[in-house]
TrEMBL record, chain A:
<dbReference type="GO" id="GO:0005886">
    <property type="term" value="C:plasma membrane"/>
</dbReference>
<dbReference type="Pfam" id="PF02361">
    <property type="entry name" value="CbiQ"/>
</dbReference>
<dbReference type="InterPro" id="IPR051611">
    <property type="entry name" value="ECF_transporter_component"/>
</dbReference>
<keyword id="KW-0472">Membrane</keyword>
<keyword id="KW-0812">Transmembrane</keyword>
<feature type="transmembrane region" description="Helical">
    <location>
        <begin position="20"/>
        <end position="46"/>
    </location>
</feature>
<keyword id="KW-1133">Transmembrane helix</keyword>
<protein>
    <submittedName>
        <fullName>Energy-coupling factor transport system permease protein</fullName>
    </submittedName>
</protein>
<keyword id="KW-1003">Cell membrane</keyword>
UniProtKB/TrEMBL annotation, chain B:
<protein>
    <submittedName>
        <fullName>Energy-coupling factor transport system ATP-binding protein</fullName>
    </submittedName>
</protein>
<keyword id="KW-0067">ATP-binding</keyword>
<keyword id="KW-0813">Transport</keyword>
<dbReference type="GO" id="GO:0005524">
    <property type="term" value="F:ATP binding"/>
</dbReference>
<comment type="similarity">
    <text>Belongs to the ABC transporter superfamily.</text>
</comment>
<dbReference type="GO" id="GO:0042626">
    <property type="term" value="F:ATPase-coupled transmembrane transporter activity"/>
</dbReference>
<dbReference type="InterPro" id="IPR015856">
    <property type="entry name" value="ABC_transpr_CbiO/EcfA_su"/>
</dbReference>
<feature type="domain" description="ABC transporter">
    <location>
        <begin position="250"/>
        <end position="472"/>
    </location>
</feature>
<dbReference type="InterPro" id="IPR003593">
    <property type="entry name" value="AAA+_ATPase"/>
</dbReference>
Length: 237, 478
């Protein structure tokens, strides 16, 4: 899953609260759905949502991968038996439970600004003790990508290959190269970010204002209704 | 007393005064700033006695968000100071927290952007800005909150010369507005006509309080023995280096660099021999780092040729020969002890060589320690040890002296000079003092070009200053 920094202007903005409602809905659908067909509809909805948010490429790739998995399940695994069959079915059923949530979360995280998120959570009357760590996390995700670039360089200069092949030929070493600097960078960055935010009064209990006006608009209602239709349909039919 | 701890600090600062806190690393200057903005005791715990008052507020009792309205803080690392992705939201971050009304938010945002002259940055993605620009946004965010007291903790550490002068202009603006300023800093020269009082700390105590006049009157040797950097760059002159006669080993022929299909630098031609220490200068974002990454075989989008003793080298060959000591060394330390780090990733490590290198770099006492428990300078030495054990012949240092006091800079200088005996060394740096002392010549990046080969010597002083951007101090005072 790629999480990119928002570059282009979004076509339509959604309230961060809407995104959270959508996430909950799609998780309910994914875990309770009686047939994979409903999930296909869900993925299409998510892709549509992603596209209007400006994440067209991400949505296309996301749905293409899902379709490939879905078609291979329908046409190949249904007709086969044996160990391979069991292994793949078990693995794929897990993937199908997680995939929609993961794909939607990617879109939500990359299109939500930290200040929007803070204001929306504030309006939803959620405790600061929960909001602040989440906001630091949301802000931290793009820095991992920067860190990864440096670590990759360092690994290559030490003759350790930072690739999938390297992971298979020297699994221990590759993992060690990754997690130890990444953890160090993470703990330092998270600390400094937290300091920068508390010294600018993030803990202020007054209701936070926001440069961008946050409120439920017509597009929020529409998209929630669309997503709601899927579990309702699966219950009725 | 623990490193960075302080005792017996009595200091009262008047409104509108500018105080410079200086001293060696770990002398407690940052601790003092943390006591004032409330990070101690609200964020960092410890043994604490006495009291700190900001205006009428007791810093130990007042919650941090209330202190934040009175005291604004700017920190060292531009990368981890911003909380939003876009410039506008970031500048408004502090005033949003203060719950300023939405219509006033926009007014204050516009006013801040106007006064600080950062219109060109408006609406941009902060991740794409240079370090200097990021630092401006961090400053703007604090400025928008309009605090009475400004705290700056080594704000210039990651900045190039031009950005330092911009920072200085901001400080002068604050002084005109009669704001109170406290700065903890190693680079002193840009603050001499800004600071009203200079507090020298040593081992957690206030040793002396100077006026700028009495401080500038200290002799160079006294200042150096106090562990302090130059106070006036006009008095720092390039040293002539002994000429070493080596034959040309590395040749860069007409190299052009691209990044994401955009050309960055063209016509790079360069020759280098062992024993040379080449300073790489120029503003941020001019392609210095890309060039050095290409030189190490890490960046592949280029045209032209690299030759090593006459033979063409591809990326893999160069990667084998070269090593980069990064500005943030943490990224290149992987193992769980210094000893293990030195033989990490090598199939049959030569233990004798490891032993010899460790003792040469005075790392024997830390052999069993985890690299992350070491100080910045020690980590740097571990990275250097790795490069020596791997037999690298070309070393690149990326801003090795950022945020270092005089003593540590001296140590880095000595280390690099020692290494240069049988290697080619490139150093990316904005540090004029360091260049004068160590580099044998400088190459400059700017406007899509590399201009090469100014030998660091007394007669080239004027040219060197121009290239680094250290002219401003000259003109301002003359």
């Amino acid at each position: 899953m790629t999480v990119t920094i928002e570059k282009k202007k979004q076509f339509i903005r959604f309230d961060p609260r809407t995104k959270i409602i959508l996430l909950v809905l799609s998780m309910i659908v994914a875990t309770t759905t009686p047939s994979l067909l409903y999930e296909c509809v869900l993925i299409l909805l998510i892709a549509g949502f992603g596209s209007v948010c400006g994440k067209v490429r991400y949505s296309l790739i996301g749905s293409a991968v899902f379709m490939a998995l879905y078609l291979s399940t329908v046409f190949y695994l249904e007709n086969s038996t044996g160990t391979m069959h069991t292994m793949f079915t078990a693995w794929l059923s897990l993937v199908f439970k997680v995939y929609p949530g993961g794909m939607l979360a990617g879109i939500a995280v990359s299109t939500t600004r930290v200040n929007e998120f803070l204001s929306a959570m504030n309006k939803a009357h959620i405790s600061r003790k929960i909001i602040i760590p989440l906001a630091v996390m949301l802000r931290y995700i793009p820095t991992i990508r920067e860190d990864w670039r440096y670590i990759k360089d360092a690994m290559r200069l030490r003759d350790v290959s930072p690739s999938i092949i390297g992971l298979f030929t020297h699994p221990g070493m590759t993992v060690e190269c990754l997690y130890s600097p990444l953890l160090m960078a993470a703990s330092k960055a998270a600390d400094e970010l937290a300091i920068a935010s508390v010294t600018r009064g993030i803990e202020n209990p007054k209701p936070r204002t926001c440069l961008i006006q946050i409120r439920f608009r017509i597009q929020d209602v529409l998209i929630i209704l669309c997503f709601l239709a899927v579990p309702v349909a699966s219950l009725c039919c | 007393m623990a490193e960075g701890g302080v005792e017996n600090i009595n200091l009262s600062v008047n409104a509108g005064e500018c105080i410079l806190l200086c001293g060696r690393s770990g002398c407690g200057k940052t601790t003092i700033t943390k006591l004032i903005n409330g990070l101690i005791p609200h964020y960092f715990a410890g043994e604490l006695s006495g009291s700190v008052k900001v205006g009428s507020l007791d810093a130990f009792q007042t919650p941090m968000y209330q202190l934040a309205e009175k005291v604004g803080s700017v920190f060292q690392n531009p990368r981890t100071q911003f909380f939003n992705i876009d410039v506008d939201s970031e500048i408004a971050f502090g005033i949003e927290n203060e719950a300023v009304r939405p219509d006033e938010l926009h007014q204050r945002l516009d006013a801040t952007i106007d006064t600080l002259k950062i219109k060109p940055l408006q609406g941009r993605n902060i991740f794409e800005l240079s370090g200097g620009e990021k630092q401006k946004i961090a400053f703007a965010s604090v400025y928008a909150m309009n605090p009475d007291v400004y705290l700056l903790d080594e704000p210039s550490s990651n900045l190039d010369m031009a950005s330092i002068y911009d920072l200085k202009a901001y400080l002068q603006l604050l002084k005109q507005q009669r704001k109170t300023i406290l700065i903890a800093e190693h680079r002193l020269y840009y603050l001499m006509d800004v600071a009203d009082r200079i507090v020298y700390l040593s081992e957690g105590k206030i040793e002396a309080i100077h006026t700028p006049e009495s401080f500038c009157a200290l002799s160079g040797n006294t200042r150096k023995s106090m562990g302090l950097r130059a106070v006036d760059l006009r008095c720092v002159h390039p040293k002539d280096k002994p000429r070493r006669e080596h034959s040309v080993l590395l040749e860069v022929k007409d190299v052009a660099l691209h990044y994401k299909k955009r050309p960055i630098v063209k016509n790079i031609t360069l020759k280098a021999a062992k024993g040379e220490i080449i300073g790489v200068v120029g503003c941020n974002g001019t392609g210095k780092t890309t060039f050095l990454r290409t030189l190490c075989g890490l960046h592949k989008d280029y045209t032209g040729a690299f030759l090593w003793s006459g033979k063409q080298q591809n990326g893999k060959d160069r990667m084998k020969r070269s090593y980069m000591v990064m500005q943030d060394v943490n990224y290149e330390l992987f193992a769980d002890s210094v000893g293990a780090e030195c033989s990490f990733g090598i199939k049959n490590p030569d233990m004798e060589l490891v032993e010899k290198t460790l003792s040469e770099l005075e790392l024997i006492p830390f052999r069993e320690k985890h690299p992350n428990t070491l100080s910045g300078g020690q980590k740097q030495r571990v990275a250097v040890a790795v490069s020596m054990i791997c037999g690298k012949e070309l070393l690149v240092f990326d801003e090795p002296t950022s945020g270092l006091d005089f003593d540590s800079m001296q140590q880095v200088a000595a280390l690099i000079q020692k290494l240069a005996a049988d290697k080619i060394i490139f150093v990316v740096t904005h540090d004029y003092e360091f260049i004068c002392q160590v580099c044998s010549r400088i190459i400059h990046f700017g406007q899509g070009q590399m201009t090469g080969g100014i030998v660091v010597s007394e007669e080239n002083e004027k040219q060197i200053r121009e290239r680094i951007g250290a002219v401003d101090t000259l003109e301002r005072k003359d």
